[in-house]
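Chain A, query sequence.
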Amino acid sequence: MPETVLPKTVIQRSRDRARQRLGWIDTAQSFPFAGNFDLTEHAHGVLMVNNEDIVDAGHGFDTHQHQDVEIVTWVVSGSLVHQDSRGNSGIVHPGLAQRMSAGRGILHSERNDHRRADGSPVADPVHVIQMWIPPDESGSEPSYQELPIDAELDAGALVVVASGLPRHRNDAAVGLHNRYAGLHAARLQPGRTVTIPDAPFGHLFVARGTVDVEGSGPLEHGDALRLTGSGGQRVSAVTDAEILIWEMHASFDRRPSRR
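Chain A, predicted structure.
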C-alpha cells in the first residue's frame, strides 16, 4: 500500500525567498540552488528548482553544462534566446511551452540578446521562471521540445504545459521524462477561477498578479503555496494574473503513489 501523506499547506511569501542582485540579473530562489544541499530536505515533491530571474538586455547565461535534469523555462515578459549543443535554437517568449532534457549531458546558453532578429535593439529585461525536476532514468539521450500555447492560455483555463503523467499523454504541450509530474499554467482575468489538481504534492507559484486561494487567502506575485496530500482548492484571480501549478505524485523521500 502507498504511504499515507498527511494534508498540509505552507505559504512561502516572495519576501522569504533567497534573493540576489548580481550585476545584470535579479534572481529570487524558492529552493536552495547552489552548493551542497539535501534534496529531501529542501525540495518539494520532485520540484528542486523554482528560480525567478529578471535579466537585463544584452546579458544572460553563457554556455554551460547540465546533466540528468528536466528543465522547464517559462517566460512571463520579454524574450530569451536558447542555443544548445544538440543544434536546437530559438526564442523563448510568453506563451511558449519549452522543455530541455539534459540527459547524459548537454551544453546550452540562454540570453536576453541586445538585438532582435530584425536588427532592432532590445532595451527591456526578460522576466523568466526556470523549474527543474529529475528524470525517471539517468543517462538518457538529451532532447528539446517547444510549442506555442497562447490560444489555450487566453481561454482562461488550466493548461497542461509539460507532463510525463500517463493521463496527460495526449494533453501536454510538451513531454517530461518523469512519469510522476506535470506542470499546469493559467492566465486569469479578475474573477476567473481554476482548481488545483489533487495530488500527493503540489506547488502553486504566482508568476504575475494577485490570486485568492480557497482556504489560504490572497497570494501575490512571487508567493508560492506548497501542498501535501491536498488539492481541489479553487484559485480565483483578484487582478490579471498568471499562475504555475506543479502536480506531483512522487517525492525525493517518499515512494511514488499509485495512480
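The longest helix spans residues 150-154. The mean pLDDT is 90.
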